Amino acid sequence: MPYRSRSRLVPxxxxxxxxxxGLWLGFLAIALTCWLASxxxxxxxxxxVSRAVEQLAQLPVVQAPASNPMFEQYQENLRRNEQxxxxxxxxxxxxxxxxxxxxxWLQQDQTAPSDKSRANVLQFCx
Length: 126
Description:
about 130 residues, mainly alpha, 2 domains
């Protein structure tokens, strides 16, 4: 008896393997067909788009204007105002009254203002 059941199993196993192999080969055939279609059909349709992208990539880069005198003046005024505000804060701060270096440079900046005296006030005063 066991021999008979084994002989019935072999044809069913062959049939199952044949169906699985057919499905796998069918899937490969469909995938290959889609890939080939996309390579040849869609490349012809997308050629104008790819040319346009290449042209855009080759366009020269437009440089912004090198300098705008009004904007530079605005930035310079902002810098001066910030520096003046920092100096005023240094003069009014009570902690700087006990610092002799700060007092010296504050006095120098009041009597003979210069870039060096302002820089030293900002450096030695908190």
